[in-house]
Amino acid sequence: MRLKSRKIVFIFLILTFISCKTPPVPPEAREAELLEDDLRRAGASVYAPDGVFEYQREHRAAKDRLLREKAKFGWFRDYDKVRAEFQDLLAKGQNALRLARERKDARIRALEQQMSDLRQRIRMVKDVSASINESQEVRKNLAKAEVVFRQAELFVARENYTEAEQQVNTARSHLARSESAVYSLLERYRDADQVEKWRKWVKETIAHSEKTGAVVLVVDKLARKLTLFKKGKPVATYEIGLGRYGLSDKLHAGDDATPEGKYKIIRKFPNTQYYKALLLNYPNEEDLRQFRLAKKNGQVPGRADIGGDIEIHGGGNGNITRGCISVENEAMDKIYAQAEAGTWVTIVGSADLENGVLKIMQKM
Amino acid sequence: MRGFTKLFVVGLVVAFAFTSCAKQPTQEVNDAKAVIDAAVKDGAAIYAKDELAKVNGALTAAQDEITTQSKKFFKKYGNAKKMLLQVKTDAEAVKALIPARKEEAKNNAVTAQTEAKAALDEAKTLLDKAPKGKGTKADIEAMKADLKGLEESFPAVQTALDAQDFFGAKDKAVAIKEKAVSISDQVKKAMEKVKGKG
Fold this sequence. Notes:
- The complex is a heterodimer.
- Chain A is α+β, with helices and mostly antiparallel strands.
- In chain A, 58% of the residues lie in helices and 13% in strands.
- Among the domains of chain A are: 84 residues; 158 residues, L,D-transpeptidase catalytic domain-like, CATH 2.40.440.
- In chain A, strands 3-2-1-8-4-5-6-7 form an 8-stranded mixed β-sheet.
- The longest helix of chain A is centred in the first third of the chain and has 51 residues.
- The radius of gyration of chain B is 32 Å and the shape is rod-shaped.
- Classes of the chains: A alpha+beta, B mainly alpha.
- At the A-B interface, helix 1, helix 4 and helix 6 of A face helix 1, helix 4, helix 6 and helix 8 of B.
């Protein structure tokens, strides 16, 4: 009996010893743990939530089965099934990780593209606004768009793409207001009939110069240029400043707009507040007709006068005038020397459909 | 020998009773989670993001340890309890970090706000002083419009501060300051241009 008991204990100890010599746990179990960390780091719960939740659920189940297998005596342990399960799990996890990375990359690329487009649009509106005086509303909204856009850049630097996307949308809405202000200002300049009318004036003026050999001046408001023609040929071009609302056609006194039409110099002033000046015969017959019509239609204030004293004068081309055309004093010297009473001065919005500003607007 | 066998069996039963019936540390888990939740409520996800992730990872590891032990024949929750205690201590440390970090973020935002205001004031003063003469008036008018846009954006900094969005407030203030400084630089250049011509 004693011998039998000893045998039982001996066998028990041997079994215990053997059961301690367990087959190794599949390395895939550790890889699955590491992969879960990778998924977390890649933000997979945001970019591939379904895949991650499935992975986490199956990972838990696989760990349970691994534990159950580990709990068995060594003799009965078989990790083959568990290993296969972990291998399957790893494949799914890798897919989720790849998907998450692809989606994250795609989101970043889309955001970068949006930001690049927005940056370009901001630059274009800025370029347009630099050449127009009526840009207060444009510039104000543009500044707001730039501030918010900069915030978006700071969020991107911190990899906070959700906030960055929100800021990009806000910047876009500020920019849209800015662009809308530009469109309303330059609507006339995109009207082909209007531009054709201006071109016709310019052609007639140049033809007159060619026919008579006289000096004529052509002012392109959008291009901000004054060109001096002699015998039908352009001799010199000067940059100009305009009224605060210079791109609009002058309708009445105090509107700070620069008139459009075919005018003549009626007087030369060698010394004025703005260096030298050439007085134009504004308002001409067409201006008076337009003014009367506008007054009849209630487009101008009841007591408003049509105004006058529109000049080409010195003082600098960066000036904002009340409707006159200003040039640098050096340019004024040259223009003054060539022009005389009776010299034709044709002022148009734009004679060039290919004008840079309009080109930018077409892209906007 | 019969006595020995009996003793062996009794020993096994006692060991079984002490181990397989060991109670899971549920209370410890709840305590640790409660401290983490409190830290999150205080803003740990914003002000101690990395530390919070570490504590959450440690909690998961402790819970895994509990699961591991629960599957075993001889259950030992001592290690899990130790881990949970550490999680609780670490979570309390994270929670303790937040007020200082929040204060720091707030101070940074307020400093940025003050700097932005100073930059706006400087740009405004420069624009008011800038000679509206030869060749500069149009530029100055444009910059005034830019400044107006910035001034209208500025109250949003205080709004963000009031909402305790200190990082957002700082970013906005920094963006406004940068733009205001660039306006000041342009005004200075325009003034230099006038001086040069004069």
